[in-house]
Amino acid sequence: MSDTELLSLQTDHIRTLQQRYEQAIAEQGYDGLLISSGAAPVRYGDDQAWHFQGYGPFLHWTGLTGQEHSWLLVRPGQKPLLSLYQPVDFWHATPELPDEPWLQSMDVRFSDRRDAPAMDFNGRLAVVGDPSQLSGVDGEHNPEDLLSALDETRVHKTPYEIACLARANHIAMQGHRAARKTFLDGGSEFAINLAYQQATGQREAQAPYHSIIGVNEHAGTLHYQYYDTEAPVRPRSLLIDAGVRFRGYCSDITRTTPGAGERRFAALIQGLEQLQQRLCGMVAPGVDYVAIHRKTHQGIAALLNAAGVVQGVDDETLVERGVTQAFFPHGIGHFLGVQVHDVAGKKAPSPSDAPFLRLTRTLEAGMVVTIEPGVYIIPSLLDPVLNGPLGKNFNRSVIDELRGCGGIRIEDNVVVTPDGARNLTREADG
């Protein structure tokens, strides 16, 4: 999609948001809504701030991730008022506002003050954002029912949002290819991270989340957060979970690569890849997302048996006795949008057999989800199973061989379409 087409879709996106927000505001009994962009908090006992990426509803409208201390006023029947903080500052650069068509849909003002804009406003006003930024601002702060209604406006993505998510996938896959090559060439976790950033052209502070780059046993820590600067003597596996932001929208992609000579681990990756594609094929309107999660456990049980990890236990027993949870302890995925774990995923609590599942809804067209099954060798979870009643059914030599590889995760970003699904990640990898 060309940039011209994308910008045209953004103008349509703003119109759609105006309608959705007006409806939410009216249904909750308000006459207007003021949204704070937020600001990076200063670290305790220091004069340095944390990295800033913006408050979700502000990004939903503007995509301006680096715009601190700014405000958006939404009023029924009027142009949104966008007040951008632009101080005279010789210490730091001021974010530049692109000259794009969507700005014609707004009343744009600039201020060298961090305060909320002066408003000629009568009526009941709601104000949403980080509470630390709302002190002294008139209006009702973060009303719970309205916040829930605003979250719901983000569930069904507009064509513009899907186009941004597709572009974020395309850029991220360039990084994943570079990361894989660097690993196979013998690079360290740190070198792999640098290769990813170089290929995507995005600093780690701009990325939607801290990239997870685990080589060998580090791949078995789900959110492994460090980067070794020295490569292991024997590189056996790479798990990289990394995304990109594009105009505020996130990609969230995971790939696992076997090292040279790791035939058993490579076969396990291939088996999980086949399962992951079947699960992506389940995505469609009317499908219970929890059912996809449960189908994952059935598939992992079959994979454990096929790979010779367990023997003499049927797939159903492996699921019922919690064995598959030891190998796959997290949920199958989540909503995706201007937040990696986007909002409104849990209208109902997670079921007892999936306590970490972030999405419990029935799928509908316009939703964007991740599908990310995994198989891990995590000692703290697996050792109690090995020492339990089914311990004799495990092939210890196979498990010991796999321990040094850590684990596998494969993750794609999938749009629910009116008649099925569109896999943005596989499109970008084609």
From TrEMBL:
The family this protein is said to belong to: Belongs to the peptidase M24B family. Bacterial-type prolidase subfamily.
Signal sequence segment: none
EC number(s) reported in the record: 3.4.13.9
GO biological process terms, semicolon-separated: proteolysis
HAMAP family cross-referenced by the UniProt entry: X_Pro_dipeptid (MF_01279)
GO molecular function, one term: aminopeptidase activity
Pfam families linked: PepQ_N, Peptidase_M24
Superkingdom of the organism of origin: Bacteria
Entry-linked Gene3D superfamilies: Creatinase/methionine aminopeptidase superfamily, Creatinase/prolidase N-terminal domain
Residues engaged in binding Mn(2+) 1: 252, 334, 372, 411
Name under which the protein is recorded: Xaa-Pro dipeptidase
